[in-house]
Amino acid sequence: MQDALSKANRYRQEANRCYELAKRSSPGFLRDTYRKVAVQYLFMAEGELQVAEKKDAERREVVVPDVAATGAAED
Fold first, then answer.
1. What pTM was estimated for this model as a whole?
2. Cα–Cα distance, 52 to 29 (Å, whole number)
């Protein structure tokens, strides 16, 4: 899970960097390109956060053994 969170953080940092480049770029097409790349990085960060949440939810799942299958209920 830590790996997905660190990836999400790196993607957010890259999105910020691209956004700053977009603010300083002079041709309009270059500005638009940097903004689009920044948005793509934000989507990638969101995807990594979803992966981390899914792994966390799977880790928290409690597996309850089937009592009838184990024979523990026989008294």
1. 0.72
2. 35
